[in-house]
Structures are given as structure tokens and as C-alpha cells.
Amino acid sequence: MGLALAVLSLAAVFTLSLPDDTLWQRVIENAGHGPVFGALAIVLLLLRAPPAGLQLRSFSQYRAVFLVVVVLGIVTELLQLALPHRSVSAADALHDAAGAALGLALVWLVERRLARQLEGNAGDARTPVAVAIALGAFVILAWQPLQAARAYAARTAAWPALLPLNAEAQAAFTRVNDATVSHAPLPVDFRQSGDADSLRLSFNAGARPGVQLLEPVADWSSYEQLVIDVTNPASQPVQLVLRVFDATHDWTHEDRFNQALVIPARTRTTVRIALEAVATSPRGRRMDMTAIADVMLFASRPLDAGELYLTRVWLE
Fold this sequence. Notes:
five-stranded antiparallel sheet
């Protein structure tokens, strides 16, 4: 019986995966490890009767079940080395262990509370430890969902600005290619009163730097323009491409918005893109301006070593 449950739990971890389209889907998939292994630990424990002469399961039984479930979690991760499109995750193994710890701690607390109520048993000295374990395991399991919620809240608070975002939202919703990213003030020659820090892309010679907005706020239908405040402090102009597509994009060049932008040397430039041009850009259809899925600004050719600054990207 226990072996069958273990096999079913492993199968759930392998097969119950969501497409990694959004941050929430990825977080839910990762967070699912905790409940699966918590339930497995509880069932494996309940299959064990208390030792002879005792009314409650012993600490050693809890410990043994916990170790078995932890080993199963590690084995689950190692088996993924042999599977295509899967990877080993220490975080998943930690969630497995935290789920098992939380489930077992809850059973410990419930069993001993019922024993005190029904039979007047004295309290157990390990009960405070069980409470601490339950709280610690809950924090581990709740950490990723909490961070995701903070990232979504920060993205919403910044709207209709797409960039820059705070640290949590930037880590969750932006991807920088071929460059090192930081928040920094503009060089003095380009700075204006009231400027906040810009997103600085620093890159080596031969790089094609770019920044991609993942899972942007999707509904742009009530706005008229996409505006980009970009600074090129170098002595040569920079050729960029702005790419935008919606949720039904078919991954062809003709089914998205592609706009070449030339940022002159030693200038701070405000680029304005009419959203009607974005909407009518796919061949044979109109882009769904309520379902924008991806925005990317990238160099169209290799650049000399240098920096680009994105002070703000927004809708108006």
C-alpha cells in the first residue's frame, strides 16, 4: 500500500505540470510539490500503528517516515536527469522536504491534542518543536507564492509604465540578453531634473544587448502610444529593433510588430510608437491589443563595448 502511494505521488510530480506561460503557473507548479509530499508523508505515517503498549505513534516513527519521503523527493529529482525538458531542482527537493515536515508536524499536533482531550494525557515536551517545524515549513512553502504576489503588485503599481520596475518585478518579468543590467542615474550630460534611476545595460564589444518584457500587463486597448525614453552616450549611433506580439502569435516574423529604431550618438531620445501601427502589423489579421504577451527591445547588430540607458518605457 505504501509503495503504491509513493509511486502515485511520484507520477503526480512528473505528470501534473503546467505550461510555463506565466509566473503564477510556474509558482503553482513548484508549490505543488509541498502538498503532494505532505499528503504522502501523512498517509505513510497513518499506515503505521503505534508501537506495542503505546497509544500514540513515537517520534522515531515520524522521523523514519520523514526520511523516507525526503529520499523519495531526492530520487524524484535525480530521475529527471534522464527525462527530456526536465531539470534537477534543489528548490523542488526542499519543497518536498518542507511539505513532508509540515504534514507530519500537523499530525503530531492533532494526535497529541486529541489524546489530551479524550484521555487526559500530559503534554509532550516535543510539541513546541513540532509547532516551530510547522511554521518553518509553511514559510518555506509560502515564500515563492508571496514573492510572486509582490512582483505582480509592483508591476501593477508601476502601470502604465513598463520599465523600470522594482527589484522583485524586474527579476520576475524582464530578461536581459547579452548585457549586465543595473539601476543607475543617467550620465550628467543627459540628466534632467526629477529623473529617477534608469535601467542601464552594460555590454562588451560584439554584444547585441536587449531587454525583454515577459508577461506584460496585457490590455493596451485604452492607450494610443508606446513611449521609450532611451539614451545612447556612445560616439556611434545604435540600431535597435522593437518587437511586440500578442498571445496568438504564431512565431513568424510577419505575425508581429517589428520596428527599426536608430538612436543617434550622444543623445537622449524619446521614441513614440502609435499603437494603431502595432495593432495592424501582423499580416492577415489585427493584433489583439487586449492580449499583449511580449515586448522586446534589442540591438539589430553587434555593438562596440558601451552602455544604453532606458529611463522609462510607458503607455499613454
